[in-house]
Write a structure and sequence with these properties.
five-stranded parallel beta sheet, 8 helices, globular, 55% helix, 5 strands
Length: 173
């Protein structure tokens, strides 16, 4: 059975919507950043402090393991996961990918000062605008469906995600 995979920038609500989708589908939610921490015994911030390459290596191994799970999951991915072509391939091969798209200003308002985020930007609005531009092609290449985040509530987004998933995968929400 196919995983339901949520990708997008920080602040897009991937984990929040993922929790609703997982509950409605009767599936387990796996957040890739939390899975990396469980697998390595180190925080994302600690891994990043050794360099982004160190983190991305651990992320690639974790994504491959999560994507290979036989149990159908809802997977909430870290914001940069789709930049790596190997991650995109693994997620698309085993899952149905939804890009939670939002305007950088909307996402920055949700992120606030970035406290509690694996990457805590000093200027969230500028960082998210730059990342949106840099990563849009990778998100587009990964996504089966794009769902906006700006003017929709969590339940509305979950409904759209699950309706698309049902149509594509033949899974009843």
């Amino acid at each position: 059975m196919t995983h339901l995979v949520l990708v997008g920038l920080m602040g897009a609500g991937k984990t929040t919507v993922g929790e609703v989708c997982a509950r409605r589908l009767g599936r387990r939610l796996v957040d890739t950043d939390r899975a990396i921490e469980a697998r390595t015994g180190r925080t994302v911030a600690e891994l990043f402090s050794e360099g982004e390459a160190t983190f991305r290596t651990e992320e690639r191994a974790t994504v491959a393991a999560v994507a290979a799970e036989r149990e159908p999951l809802v997977i909430s991915c870290g914001g940069g996961v789709v930049v790596d072509p190997a991650n995109r391939d693994a997620l698309r091969a085993t899952g149905w990918v939804v890009w939670r798209f939002g305007a950088p200003a909307t996402l920055a308002a949700r992120v606030g000062d970035g406290a509690g985020r694996p990457l805590r930007p000093t200027d969230p609005a500028a960082t998210l605008a730059r990342l949106a531009d840099e990563r849009a092609p990778a998100y587009a290449a990964a996504a089966h469906l794009v769902v906006p985040t700006d003017d929709l509530g969590v339940d509305e987004v979950a409904e759209r995600v699950l309706a698309g998933f049902e149509r594509a995968a033949g899974v009843a929400p």
